[in-house]
Specification:
Layout lengths: L2 H10 L3 E4 L6 E6 L2 E7 L5 E5 L2 H10 L3 E3 L8 E5 L5 H18 L2 H6 L1
Antiparallel strand pairs: 1-2, 2-3, 3-4, 4-6, 5-6
Length: about 110
């Protein structure tokens, strides 16, 4: 997968949107205003994704290319080198991150989406 593949897949998820709140090199993907992925465009091959804390530990042990989230809460976020992890796993992790965020949205916002 390349950066554009990752971006397109993330945006294909229900009610996803993108913006550049930090700088023009860091793409942020959201649902209901909450971040579920951060994609640095200059450091291609990496994405920060939210992850269940127990699963984060298991993934980091299994994959050398999955590490604690860079500049993020290490309990809830992983940095995934998507060019070193199987495509199916990358897509599943993006979907998992999206699901965690959607599940944490207030019911009224969730109903609107």
């Amino acid at each position: 997968m390349n950066v554009e593949d990752v971006r397109e897949f993330a945006l294909s998820l229900q009610a996803s949107s993108e913006d550049f709140p930090f700088d023009e090199h860091t793409l942020v993907l959201r649902d209901g205003g909450k971040i579920f992925a951060i994609l640095p465009l200059e450091k291609s091959g990496r994405i920060n994704l939210k992850c269940d804390p127990d699963r984060s530990v298991a993934l980091r042990e299994e994959f050398e290319a999955i590490t604690p989230g860079y500049h993020m809460n290490k309990k809830w976020w992983n940095t995934v080198e998507f060019d070193r992890v199987p495509e199916a796993m990358v897509k599943e992790l993006i979907t998992h991150s999206h699901s965690l965020v959607v599940g944490s949205l207030p019911k009224n916002i969730n109903a609107e989406l």
